[in-house]
């Protein structure tokens, strides 16, 4: 399985990864570190807020929200989710494309980094 | 006879760890709520006696860490370091050990006498997990007590553990240094030795902690070293630089990251040995609830409905007890005036004191209901979901998702809305929200809109009123953007918010929360509002005009004795005239006349100027003042006042009336709201709020009036 590093914000709902690094500096990075975004910690995307940001993550077993911009500062390595999305125990959740994928980009969303 | 000894306990812990429940279970109703000196962070102190100790419990702000980056963390840390409590009780959410123990490690490194409280132990056991308490005890070097604070279980044991720790500290207190890997350990040892040899330790904190903080470049610890001219400081500065370079070269990372990783690594190791993973996921139920409550399509409708219910409960249902209170106050006033002979003292008692007390307790139903609702939202866990939904919208004006509730409540009444800013965690968000809340047009401003819009824009009254509400929101958006780009730029606090599992709130917890807020209102604000009301009454009633009064009253009595319809009518007109003369001559009337030159460029008449000053008592007073000054009597504000305003002799044009509405929308909040502001954000920001709002009101009214005049609307 190919393992690529990418910003946490690029993971789709249902996808999982492992924290590789936290970019940025000062109080901002410090707060992310304090909240458990530590190298080697598994993280999973739970869902996006209806307006695409913030995003709910499960990091080290705790549910935490981050704004999309903030989630760009966390570098992760993609991992298979504990339960792959197409084998979800609840059928209606299978194959559901999360909001915020490229096809769903709306005119009011500013740039690709948002 | 043993003397009663005192014991000071500090309560530390993450937000959502149930720290407040522990505090309430320990102290019951014997709490003092105030603010930490100089900052808008709530400080709660409780007192109790146990085993011959007078115990003082200080509830520290809920924090995830002990850096100096947020006000809350700084407050918590400096209390521990500078005030040196005898014991720190760390309240931990047992279902979320890894993240909670992160703070434990920092407390350990601070060298405090620590008791670990494993709270919500029932949920932890129900999840099927097992924890070896003995192992945790050994690894943390602190007594460990499981509790269920919401039911009061384990609280006595917790207090006993704290007392035991003080009585024979040798047995328990064992400092276990955390290893941060060879490189950092070496550097830390050298730095610690250097600090020790130079005698540069900070009182109350161990030198190793100080060395760690220096490596992390903690602003508060490193600043004295960077700014000092002493030779010791320069040696330490060199050592820090060398150490930082060494760590970066050797590990390719930086000290701050390695230290955070080291702490989590230690916890992970400890839990691997002591914790048997839970068999059920405690977030499972919450995730299913969230499939509806934060759903892409259903999330907002549900949120809107919940907010609508909260608003209706607070202001519609709350209106009934408010009416009862008003009826009761009027009854007291009439009874008293029947019993007492008419004099200045009785007038002071009836209009000043009874009226003043009435103006204080009239807000109480709103406050009780709103904070019951807010407590429910917070304790159930929905508040965080609401913030999750609203953050994108609120972030646009530099606010936090949770700012939504105070802003919404602002449409009802600014006083409870400003008090509701306490639900925000960061003091920056709290301040900015409190400054914007008064822009939300409160219900006391509506009678003014209805009067003026009904008089001058009868055809489009609804549109005008709506435009004012929307205008308030628009101004708040603009001001919020400006403030967060200028005054509040230096606070890049990320939106790292925990979504706690949903819980059913306990009635006891809800009532305690509700009562806490209402007590603050009655104790800390009620008195000031009362004094201010009496003062404003005095300014409206004095100086008296004894000669004019006598003259008018004789004439009125004469006319009434004549008894013809024309004479009665004439007597009524004269009574109104007297009232108008009285208020014109009073201090408040003089103040109004004094401000008239200032509001003249906005097209306002002096009557409007006076009414704006009396409107500081409460915005709806503007209507009755206009009624008195346009001599139609206080009672008949309806059509006759409209006619009086519409007649050319009033000097009010539709354009100046609209400028007046804009001014009323934006100018300084009423006295009660100003007192609430002082209480929540301090006197400095209270003055700021008064001046920027009045200035903004003037500018925008001026703009409206002048542009309107240009287009020939005047």
- Uncertain regions of chain A: pLDDT < 50 for 5+ in a row? 82-86, 93-105, 110-114
User: If classified by CATH, what would the architecture of chain A be?
Assistant: Roll
**Mean of residue pLDDT of chain A?**
76
Instruction: Specify the helix fraction band of chain B.
Output: 55-70%
DSSP summary: helix tally of chain A: 2
Instruction: Please tell me the CATH architecture of the domain at 5-172 in chain B by its name.
Output: 3-Layer(aba) Sandwich
Q: What would CATH call the homologous superfamily of chain A?
A: Ferrous iron transport protein A (FeoA)
Rg for CA atoms of chain B: 31 Å
- How does the major sheet of chain A shape up? 6 strands, antiparallel
Mean pLDDT score of chain B: 84
Percent strand of chain A equals: 25-35%
Helix content of chain A: 10-25%
Order of helices and strands of chain A: EEHEEEHE
**Oligomeric state of the chains?**
heterodimer
Q: State the end-to-end CA separation of chain B.
A: 85 Å
Taken from the alpha-carbon principal axes, the silhouette of chain B is elongated
**CATH class designation of chain A:** Mainly Beta
CATH fold-level topology of the domain at 5-172 in chain B: Rossmann fold
The number of strands of chain A is 6
CATH class of the domain at 5-172 in chain B: Alpha Beta
């Amino acid at each position: 399985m190919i393992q690529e590093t990418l910003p946490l914000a690029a993971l789709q709902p249902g996808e999982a990864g492992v924290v590789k690094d936290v970019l940025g500096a000062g109080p901002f990075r410090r707060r992310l570190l304090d909240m458990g975004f530590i190298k080697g910690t598994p993280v999973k995307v739970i869902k996006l807020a209806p307006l695409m940001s913030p995003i709910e993550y499960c990091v080290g077993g705790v549910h935490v929200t981050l704004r999309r911009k903030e989630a760009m500062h966390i570098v992760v390595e993609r991992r298979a989710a504990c339960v792959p999305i197409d084998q979800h125990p609840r059928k209606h959740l299978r194959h559901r494309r999360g909001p915020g994928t490229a096809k769903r980009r709306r005119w009011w969303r500013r740039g690709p980094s948002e | 006879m043993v003397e009663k000894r005192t014991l000071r306990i500090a309560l530390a812990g993450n937000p959502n760890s149930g720290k407040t429940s522990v505090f309430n279970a320990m102290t019951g109703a014997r709490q003092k709520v105030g603010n930490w000196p100089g900052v808008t962070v709530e400080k709660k102190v409780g007192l109790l006696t146990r085993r011959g100790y007078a115990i003082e419990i200080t509830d520290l702000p809920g924090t995830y860490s002990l850096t100096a980056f947020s006000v809350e963390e700084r407050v918590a840390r400096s209390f521990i370091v500078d005030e040196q409590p005898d014991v720190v009780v760390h309240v931990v959410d047992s279902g979320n050990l890894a993240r909670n123990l992160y703070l434990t490690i920092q407390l350990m490194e601070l060298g405090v006498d620590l008791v670990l409280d494993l709270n919500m132990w029932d949920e932890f056991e129900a999840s099927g997990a097992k924890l070896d308490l003995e192992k945790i005890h050994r690894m943390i070097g602190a007594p460990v007590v499981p509790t269920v604070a919401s039911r009061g279980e384990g609280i006595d044991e917790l207090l006993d553990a704290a007392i035991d720790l003080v009585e024979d500290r040798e047995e328990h207190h064992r400092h276990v240094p955390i290893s941060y890997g060879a490189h950092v350990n070496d550097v830390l040892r050298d730095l610690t030795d250097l600090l020790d040899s130079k005698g540069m330790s900070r009182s109350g904190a161990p030198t190793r902690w100080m060395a760690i903080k220096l490596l992390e470049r903690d602003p508060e610890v490193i600043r004295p070293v960077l700014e000092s001219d002493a030779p010791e400081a320069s040696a330490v500065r060199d050592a820090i630089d060398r150490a930082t370079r060494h760590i970066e070269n050797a590990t390719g990372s930086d000290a701050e990251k390695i230290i955070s990783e080291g702490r989590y690594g230690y916890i992970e190791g400890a839990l691997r040995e002591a914790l048997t993973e839970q068999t059920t996921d405690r977030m499972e139920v919450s995730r299913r609830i969230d499939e509806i409550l934060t759903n892409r399509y259903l999330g907002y409708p549900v949120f809107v409905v919940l907010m609508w219910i909260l608003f209706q409960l607070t202001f519609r249902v709350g209106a009934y007890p408010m009416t009862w209170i008003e009826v009761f106050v009027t009854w007291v006033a009439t009874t008293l005036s029947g019993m007492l002979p008419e004099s200045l003292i009785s007038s002071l008692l009836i209009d000043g004191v009874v009226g003043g007390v009435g103006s204080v307790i009239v807000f109480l139903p709103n406050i009780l209901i709103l904070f019951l609702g807010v407590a429910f939202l917070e304790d159930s866990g929905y508040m965080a979901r609401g913030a999750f939904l609203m953050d994108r919208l609120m972030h646009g004006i530099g606010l936090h998702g949770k700012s939504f509730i105070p802003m919404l409540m602002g449409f009802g009444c600014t006083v409870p809305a400003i008090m509701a800013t306490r639900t925000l965690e960061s003091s920056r968000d709290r301040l900015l929200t409190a400054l914007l809340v008064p822009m939300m047009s409160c219900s006391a401003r509506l009678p003014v809109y209805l009067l003026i819009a009904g008089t001058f824009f009868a055809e489009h009254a609804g549109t005008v009123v709506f435009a004012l509400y929307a205008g308030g929101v628009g101004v708040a958006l603009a001001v919020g953007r400006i403030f967060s780009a200028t005054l509040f730029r230096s606070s890049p606090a990320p939106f790292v918010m925990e979504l706690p599992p949903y819980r059913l709130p306990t009635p006891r917890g809800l009532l305690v929360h509700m009562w806490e807020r209402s007590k603050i209102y009655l104790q800390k604000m009620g008195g000031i509002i009362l004094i201010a009301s009496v003062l404003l009454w005095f300014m409206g009633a004095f100086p008296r005009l004894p000669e004019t009064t006598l003259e008018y009253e004789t004439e009125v009595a004469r006319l009434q004795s004549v008894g013809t319809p024309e004479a009665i009518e004439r007597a009524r007109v004269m009574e109104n005239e007297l009232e108008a003369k009285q208020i014109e001559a009073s201090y408040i009337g003089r103040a109004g006349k004094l401000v008239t030159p200032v509001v003249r460029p906005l097209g306002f008449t002096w009557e409007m100027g006076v009414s704006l000053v009396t409107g500081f008592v409460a915005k709806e007073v503007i209507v009755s003042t206009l009624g008195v000054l346009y001599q139609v009597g206080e009672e008949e504000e309806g059509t006759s006042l409209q006619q009086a305003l519409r007649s050319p002799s009033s000097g009010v044009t539709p354009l100046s009336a609209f400028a007046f509405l804009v001014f009323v929308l934006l100018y300084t909040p009423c006295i009660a709201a100003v007192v609430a502001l002082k209480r929540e954000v301090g006197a400095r920001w209270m003055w700021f709020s008064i001046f920027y709002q009045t200035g903004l009101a003037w500018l925008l009214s001026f703009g409206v009036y002048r542009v309107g005049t240009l287009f020939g609307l005047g």
